[in-house]
TrEMBL record:
Protein's UniProt keywords contain DNA repair: no
Any GO molecular function: acyltransferase activity, transferring groups other than amino-acyl groups
Reactions catalysed according to its record: glycyl-tRNA(Gly) + acetyl-CoA = N-acetylglycyl-tRNA(Gly) + CoA + H(+)
Matching Pfam families: Acetyltransf_10 (PF13673)
Residues covered by the N-acetyltransferase domain: 109-172
Protein name (Swiss-Prot/TrEMBL): GNAT family N-acetyltransferase
Keywords (A to Z) from UniProt: Acyltransferase, Repressor, Toxin-antitoxin system, Transferase
Species per Swiss-Prot/TrEMBL record: Candidatus Parabacteroides intestinigallinarum
SUPFAM superfamilies: Acyl-CoA N-acyltransferases (Nat)
Family matches, as InterPro entries: Acyl_CoA_acyltransferase, GNAT_dom
């Protein structure tokens, strides 16, 4: 599951942005993703709605040129995500014993993920997805079972390649699709390298 990055990215770090920290420059080719990290991520952090992380060179304390970023928020997988109770029951039947069949299950949403346009194809996105997976397995920080994402149609192949699955078929032809990844599907020894 570990993704090796080519130099110079193997020395890059993942830094959690503080409330008052601002990214100076970023272009992933998507205006909405760019605008969020350049203008809105601090406001979301202040409002306790999401937390953003940047992937950058170790000495880039002013966040002049980040390679990538992602934002996370708490979420859940629940009955309301399915077209009917039968579909929800089918979803949880293979994952939980009867005593653990709840009305909702804890998740973390990948709200946004962007990689600088000039760096696409270097597996940075895959590295960050794997980092997020192992980050929430390590000490199970929030009691999180699933990762979720509302993926743009153009990003679906990327998420499918990284093990995400559609939560239902209702949004199949929509501009975004609700996907999930079951963290329990990872064999976890606790010794894995989480990256930086």
């Amino acid at each position: 599951m570990k993704v090796s990055l080519r130099e110079p990215f193997s020395s890059y770090i993942i830094h959690r942005l503080g409330i008052d920290e601002q990214v100076k420059s970023f272009d992933c080719g998507d205006a909405d993703l760019n605008d969020f990290i350049l203008n809105d991520s601090g406001l979301y952090r202040k409002s306790l709605l999401s937390v953003s992380y940047v992937f950058e060179a170790p000495g880039d304390v002013n966040h002049e040129q980040i390679a990538a970023y992602f934002s996370l928020a708490n979420d859940r997988v629940s009955l309301s995500d399915f077209p009917c109770k039968t579909a929800f029951n089918r979803f949880r039947r293979h994952r939980f014993v009867n005593e653990k069949r709840l009305k909702s299950y804890p998740a973390v949403k990948i709200c946004r993920l962007g990689v600088d346009s000039s760096l696409k194809g270097l597996r940075i996105g895959q590295f960050l997805i794997n980092f997020i997976k192992y980050y929430f397995l390590s000490d199970n920080k929030t009691g999180c079972r699933f990762l979720t994402v509302d993926a743009y149609a153009a990003a679906l192949p990327f998420y499918f390649k990284n093990g995400f699955e559609p939560l239902n078929e209702e949004d199949k032809n929509e501009p975004t699709r609700l996907l999930y990844f079951d963290l329990a599907s990872i064999e976890w020894s606790g010794q894995e390298d989480l990256g930086k």
